[in-house]
């Protein structure tokens, strides 16, 4: 059993039962001394709890106490929340097998999160290989994880067995009747494309979470699949026959349909918005014949989008620094519409929301 008082000198001994001096009345130096002492005492108390759990587990005393497992005993009898309980149980089993780990936990070179990660990794590796992991291999693994944070340890384990880590990282857990937690890993290319789509959707939701993005994409794909069903397709064709005929006669056949950047990606078509080309003269001539209106034809918007590559065109006149942001992109009239600026491609440009508002 650990003797907590032996970890402090007589001058620095911390009296845990004393409530004479209020914490708020401590001067700065005394406060720092006491918090360091308390943190050290907490580390030693945690190690003591782990040693006791290990012995209870070895003797299977949890069965005598009416619990079916050591986990139930630690959570229900000792009152630890599940994550904290599992970390302590994993550490208890680690020090039972490798006693040298006690010193590493005591001096902080191995924290409980890292020990728990290592134990889970070793168990999954043993199951995957269908054979026990040698004590030497386990000891070498813990040596590699010394003085590493939980995130650094995770990366180290991934280097050792990437396929095993990827398999274990996938998670689907029901949190309630209406909520499910999902966890999975994506590659860098998919992450880049996802970030770009979120930028295009920033008008609709500036602070879109991963869950919201996932919902938008799933709903879009579901609509596409639903509309592709034969029955749906025939009904839609019948309902929109007259509308399509009208559009076919009014639109220039030389123009190709393309994403309107003001639309949500969830409601727009698919494809690369930078590859389409248009007849500028035809579009401009067509728009000139219309009455003056604030409405900008979709084809004009697409031309400006293609030319500016979907990026803010603001340039600092002094440093010549180009903004280039793709967040909340908006159309801007160089010659303002209220000052008779037209909707020509030459008079339009893309600005991010901040630079557009800054101009106003």
Question: What does it look like?
Answer:
It is a single chain. The chain is mainly alpha-helical and 360 residues long. The protein contains 16 helices and four strands. The strands form two sheets. It has a two-stranded antiparallel sheet with strand order 1-2. Strands 3-4 form a two-stranded antiparallel sheet. Strand 1 (171-174) and strand 2 (180-183) form a beta hairpin.
Descriptive keywords:
disordered N terminus, 16 helices
Would you spell out the secondary-structure blueprint of this structure?
Elements lengths: L27 H32 L1 H4 L5 H8 L4 H16 L3 H6 L5 H18 L5 H11 L4 H11 L1 H8 L1 E4 L5 E4 L4 H13 L9 H18 L2 H10 L1 H10 L29 H9 L9 H11 L20 E5 L14 E5 H7 L1
Antiparallel strand pairs: 1-2, 3-4
Helix pairs in contact: 1-4, 3-4, 4-6, 6-7, 6-8, 8-9
- Give average pLDDT, whole number: 78
User: What order do the helices and strands follow?
Assistant: HHHHHHHHHEEHHHHHHEEH
The class by helix and strand makeup works out as: mainly alpha
Count of runs of 4 or more consecutive helical residues: 16
Strand percentage = 5-15%
| Cα radius of gyration in angstroms | 32 Å
Uncertain parts: 1-13, 251-283, 285-289
User: Helix fraction?
Assistant: 40-55%
């Amino acid at each position: 059993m650990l003797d907590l008082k032996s970890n402090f000198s007589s001058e620095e001994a911390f009296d845990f039962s004393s409530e004479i001096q209020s914490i708020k009345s401590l001067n700065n130096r005394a406060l720092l001394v006491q918090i360091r002492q308390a943190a050290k005492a907490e580390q030693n108390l945690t190690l003591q709890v782990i040693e006791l759990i290990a012995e209870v587990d070895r003797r299977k005393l949890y069965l005598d106490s009416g619990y079916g497992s050591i986990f139930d005993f630690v959570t229900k009898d000792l009152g630890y929340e599940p994550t904290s309980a599992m970390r302590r149980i994993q550490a208890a089993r680690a020090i039972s097998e490798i006693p040298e780990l006690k010193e590493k936990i005591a001096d902080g070179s191995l924290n409980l999160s890292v020990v728990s990660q290592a134990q889970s990794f070793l168990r999954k590796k043993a199951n995957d290989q269908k054979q026990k992991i040698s004590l030497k291999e386990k000891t070498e693994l813990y040596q590699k994880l010394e003085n590493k944070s939980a995130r650094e340890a995770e990366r180290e384990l991934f280097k050792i067995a990437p396929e095993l880590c990827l398999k274990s990282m996938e998670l689907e857990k029901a949190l309630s009747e209406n909520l499910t937690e999902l966890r999975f890993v994506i590659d860098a290319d998919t992450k880049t494309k996802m970030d770009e789509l979120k930028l295009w959707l920033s008008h609709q939701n500036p602070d879109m979470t991963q869950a919201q993005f996932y919902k938008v994409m799933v709903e879009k794909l579901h609509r596409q699949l639903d509309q592709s069903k034969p029955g749906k397709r025939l009904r839609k064709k019948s309902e929109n026959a007259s509308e399509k005929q009208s559009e076919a006669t009014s639109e220039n056949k030389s123009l190709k349909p393309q994403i309107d950047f003001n639309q949500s990606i969830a409601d727009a078509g698919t494809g690369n918005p930078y590859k389409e080309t248009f007849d500028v003269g035809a579009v401009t001539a067509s728009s000139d014949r219309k009455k003056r209106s604030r409405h900008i034809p979709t084809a004009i918007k697409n031309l400006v989008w293609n030319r500016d590559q979907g990026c803010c065109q603001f340039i600092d006149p002094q440093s010549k620094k180009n903004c280039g942001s793709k967040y909340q992109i908006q159309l801007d009239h160089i010659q303002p519409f209220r000052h008779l600026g037209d909707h020509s491609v030459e008079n339009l440009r893309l600005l991010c929301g901040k630079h557009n508002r800054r101009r106003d």
